[in-house]
Amino acid sequence: MGSYIFYAVLAGVAWGVGGFFEKAGLQALKLPPIAGITIRTVIALLILGTLSIPAWKSIENPGNIKAWVMIAVGGGIIAGSLGMWSFYSSLS
After folding, report:
1. CA–CA distance, 11 with 34 (Å, rounded to integer)
2. Cα(7)–Cα(4) distance, rounded to whole angstroms?
3. I need a surface site. Which of 13, 34, 60, 69 has the fewest CB within 10 A?
4. pLDDT tier at 23, thresholds 50, 70, 90
5. Nearest-CA neighbor of 23 among 10, 36, 6?
6. Average pLDDT for residues 11-35, to the nearest whole number?
C-alpha cells in the first residue's frame, strides 16, 4: 500500500473518531459551534506550530506576498474558518 493511501485512511479515521468525541463534548457542555472551532484551532496551533518549526527554515521565497495571501485566503479563511464554521453550525 502506498504511503499516500495510508495517510488518507489515517486522516479519515482521525476525522471520524475525533469528530465523534468533539461533537459529544460540545453537546455535553452545551457549547456553541464557534467555541468548538476555537478550542480545536488553539490546540492544533500549539501542536502543529511546535512540529512545524524545522519546516520554516526551508521556505525558498519568504517575500512572495501572493503565495502568503493564497495560503491565508484558501487555508485560513475559506477552508479553515468558513469550512469549520459550516461544519460545526450543522450540529446545532
Report:
1. 23
2. 5
3. 60
4. confident
5. 36
6. 90
